[in-house]
Amino acid sequence: MNRHNTMQALEILDRIHNGEDSTTQFKQDVTDANRLAEELVSFSNAEGGLLLIGIGDDGSVTGLDEAQISRINQLLSNTANENVKPPIYPLTEVLGIQGKRIIAVSVRKGESRPYQTSKGVYFTKSGSDKRKMSPEELRRLFAESARLFADEEALPRSDITDLNTEAFYDFLSTDNRSVYEALKQGQLTLATVLQNLDLLRDDHLTLAGNLIFGKTPQRFSPSFYVDCVHFDGDDIGVDGFITKATIKGSLRQQYESTMQFLQINLHRIPTESGFNAQTKLEIDEMVLGELLVNALIHRDYYIQSSVKVFVFKTRLEIVSPGKLPNSLTVEKIKQGLSVHRNPILNSICRRVLPYSGYGSGIKRALVLQPNLILVDDRDKEEFRCVIPR
């Protein structure tokens, strides 16, 4: 053991001797992602802290074997990314203490407080324990953090050269001709126009800027694409599929390519009799377009997952990551109410995609497709639109 690790081991032993407090927590083992998320959230919403795994409640060093270390490291990685919102990035180290190995998880005081679990609960530390945060505490933290929406956040490795300028100029030429002309004549800079539209922040593309106008959006947002599968059966667990596609690119490219997938993989039915009869898709294309646009724009971009488009023998499912936000319910959506989770996407995509942005998409789809089933799955954190075939 080198001098650095020796000093660290002595510090850990000292913290173990002093017992649990608001910045130190002991766990003999961790197996439940939800319970682990509560601990990570409570540290992040307070002053940060150290979670020591392989230590009993009484401070005894129980240690971890190789299999436990591997399992817990994987659980920590998945939980910090998927069960804490927004995701956090704790530092984990395996240390030797009294001839046994433990995992030390260092959690920083969060920069984007307040944090919540995937079940929507906000925790903070209260001495050596944790507790749910009060409404007053939450309002204060939201005010202090000036929390950005997911689509406003800057992507650190990106810059203005990652913008598809041709696509942006095409958009601007129809959206705001006077700004377009001022930009062409050098009266405005491209960076200024992008910043004014919240597509560029601190010299980096925002998530919205990348998804709408990025050259290669998945370079910086690798989880945000559409998974399309035509299953040979009625269950996701069937052995075979007829065809599948991973659809990447800008939101417009994702929309157009996914619509092509559906046009190919859904049946066409004749609208009249005769050899040269016209045909139409078995599910109204306007309905498909409304539901797909809804999934792309209103999904939860804090969840690192793709939109799913599944064609089964008896139904079509369009699944977007994230449960309905705030107090929004399926019944309220049916009445045309909406809450804008991604305000930049909501605003700009009105001119990029076939989308009104007024919360009427689902309502229109229900008029055209009365048997449309909407499912707000809060446990799986996804919103499903199901259409019987």
Automatic annotation (TrEMBL):
<protein>
    <submittedName>
        <fullName>DNA binding domain-containing protein</fullName>
    </submittedName>
</protein>
<dbReference type="Pfam" id="PF13749">
    <property type="entry name" value="HATPase_c_4"/>
</dbReference>
<feature type="domain" description="Schlafen AlbA-2">
    <location>
        <begin position="20"/>
        <end position="134"/>
    </location>
</feature>
<dbReference type="Pfam" id="PF04326">
    <property type="entry name" value="SLFN_AlbA_2"/>
</dbReference>
<dbReference type="InterPro" id="IPR038461">
    <property type="entry name" value="Schlafen_AlbA_2_dom_sf"/>
</dbReference>
<dbReference type="InterPro" id="IPR007421">
    <property type="entry name" value="Schlafen_AlbA_2_dom"/>
</dbReference>
<dbReference type="InterPro" id="IPR038475">
    <property type="entry name" value="RecG_C_sf"/>
</dbReference>
